[in-house]
Structure formats: C-alpha cells, structure tokens
C-alpha cells in the first residue's frame, strides 16, 4: 500500500527565454514576450509529491516537517527573488522554461529524499500553465 504526501511551496523569480544560437528575430517568433531582453517575472507555485509505504512506527510516508525544511532550503532560498538566467548556475546555459526549472528542482530534491520514496513535482508558472516531472 502506497500513499502520496504533498507539500505546496512558492517562489517568485525572473527569467528570459532565449536560445543564444538563434537570431533575435527567431527568438521573438518562438518565445514571444518571454524573449524580452529586460526579463519578466512569474509567481511560481510548486507541489512536491512523495509516494511510498507508510512507516509502521510513525504512520508517516515522510515527516512533513523535514520535507518543508528541505523545500525551504533547497528550492525557496535558492530560487526565490532571483533572476534565473543570471543568478542560478544551472541556467547559465539552460533555457529557464518551466520544463527545465522543474527538472532542476527535481534533481536538487531527489538527492535529499530516501531513495525508497518516489518523487514527483508539479510546477505552475501561471495559474493555467503547469508542468510535471518525476525523473523519467
Ligand atoms: Ni516567462
């Protein structure tokens, strides 16, 4: 029997979507307003989901106090109020799309969570646009 526990988190960040190998014109066509050289911001909403067996002694899949702290340190402090392109090393060469941000977040959390637990994340870039990643 496996149960999924979920924790919501939030951060604000700025980015610019841009492929340095392309002309400005092609970037403008593909990324639209998101290619604006002066950057723009999003209010990102994150859901971290951890699935596993219920531990018989605690009744927990994972201690939510630990998960909360992990997200605060690894994700919120790392990304909140940052310019992703310029201040977050992973995005020096990686386009900070919601897809790529989700993969970066997942990778940072995966190494800190018990390997017997399945990790998936959902990242909302806007209330209607969101992506999911679970390491596949
Ligand atoms: Ni954007």
Percent of residues in helices comes to: 25-40%
Major β-sheet profile: 5 strands, mixed
Query: Beta fraction of the residues?
Result: 25-35%
Overall morphology: elongated
Report the CATH superfamily. 6-pyruvoyl tetrahydropterin synthase/QueD
Q: State mean pLDDT (0 to 100 scale).
A: 96
Category from helices, strands and their pairing: alpha+beta
Number of helices: 4
CATH topology: Tetrahydropterin Synthase, Chain A
**Number of spatially distinct domains:** 1
- Any low-confidence stretches, pLDDT <50, length ≥5? none
Number of strands: 5
Calculate Rg over CA atoms.
17 Å
The N- and C-terminal alpha carbons lie at a distance of 22 Å
CATH architecture: 2-Layer Sandwich
Ions and ligands: nickel (II) ion
- What would CATH call the class? Alpha Beta
Strand order of the largest sheet: 3-1-2-4-5
Q: How does this structure look, described?
A:
The chain is an alpha+beta fold. It has a single domain (2-133), classed as Tetrahydropterin Synthase, Chain A, CATH 3.30.479.10. It is 30% helix and 30% strand. It is built from four helices and five strands, in the order βαβαβααββ. It has helices spanning 24-31, 64-79, 84-87, 98-110; strands at residues 2-15, 40-53, 82-83, 118-124, 130-133. It has a five-stranded mixed β-sheet with strand order 3-1-2-4-5. Strand 4 (118-124) and strand 5 form a beta hairpin. The model has no long low-confidence stretch (mean pLDDT 96).
């Amino acid at each position: 029997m496996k149960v999924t526990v979920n924790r919501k988190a939030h951060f604000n960040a700025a980015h610019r979507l841009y492929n340095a190998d392309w002309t400005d014109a092609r970037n403008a066509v593909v990324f639209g307003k998101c290619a604006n050289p002066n950057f723009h911001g999003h209010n990102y909403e994150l859901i971290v989901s951890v699935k596993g067996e219920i531990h018989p002694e605690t009744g927990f899949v994972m201690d939510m106090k630990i998960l909360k702290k992990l997200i605060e340190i690894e994700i919120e402090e790392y990304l909140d109020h940052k310019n992703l392109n310029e201040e977050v090393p992973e995005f020096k060469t990686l386009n900070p799309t919601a897809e790529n941000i989700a993969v970066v977040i997942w990778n940072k959390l995966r190494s800190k969570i018990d390997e017997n637990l399945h990790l998936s994340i959902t990242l909302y870039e806007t209330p209607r646009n969101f992506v999911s990643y679970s390491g596949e």
